[in-house]
Amino acid sequence: MSPALPLFAGERFIFDEVIYEIAHRLGDELLLWDGWGRIGEPGVPVSDEDAEWIDPIAALLLAADAGDLEAEGELLHRYRDDDGLHPGPRIMRASPWGEDLVDVDLLTRSIR
Questions:
Q1: How far apart are CA 21 and CA 109, in angstroms?
Q2: Handedness of CA 6, 103, 61, 44 (dihedral sign)
Q3: Over 80: is that where the pLDDT of 4 sits?
Q4: 29 falls within a domain
Q5: Is residue 1 part of a domain?
Q6: CA angle (40, 17, 64) in 5-degree steps
Q7: How many Å apart are CA 99 and CA 76, to the nearest integer?
Q8: How far apart (Å, rounded) are the C-alpha atoms in residues 42 and 40?
Q9: Domain extent at residue 77
Q10: Which of 2, 38, 60, 61 lies at 20 to 30 Å from 69 by C-alpha?
Q11: Which residues is 92 bridged to in the sheet?
Q12: Any idea what the Cα angle at residue 81 is, between residues 78 and 45, rounded to 5°?
């Protein structure tokens, strides 16, 4: 791990990776530095509330990885219903090189 890439380490990175894994698992392919829902700005600590929120979701992901079909179904249900998990019409695009955050409209593919 390069110290020049601090975005790829720490609590925020792990938190966001759980959300990315579910998005990828359910067919939403986005860049690993895109943000939506509860994915936070790079470097911003994970709140206690977010940590409590993600724990059962991470447990479902582990169970689904182990072949638990009920957990897989619950992940799909939560992904569809929880705005903290799935991308909406806008995302925040960060840069792995520390450039400014950019707001991207996925419907028009325009950047603000």
A1: 23
A2: positive
A3: no
A4: yes
A5: no
A6: 130
A7: 33
A8: 6
A9: 6-86
A10: 38
A11: 35, 103
A12: 70
- List the structure tokens of 74: 């619950």
Burial string for 16-50 (b: 16+ CB within 10 Å, else e) reads bebbbebbeeeeeebeebbbbbbbbebeeebeeeb
Domain count, the chain: 1
Q: What is the pLDDT of residues 47-93, one digit of tens each?
A: 999 999 999 999 999 999 999 999 999 999 999 999 999 999 999 98
Residue spans of alpha helices (H) in the chain: 10-25, 48-65, 69-81
Asked if the structure places residue 99 within a domain, the reply is no
Instruction: Give me 109's structure tokens.
Output: 């593919």
Q: Beta partners for 90? A: 105
Q: How many Å apart are CA 80 and CA 94, to the nearest integer?
A: 24
As a whole number of angstroms, the distance between CA 103 and CA 58 comes to: 27
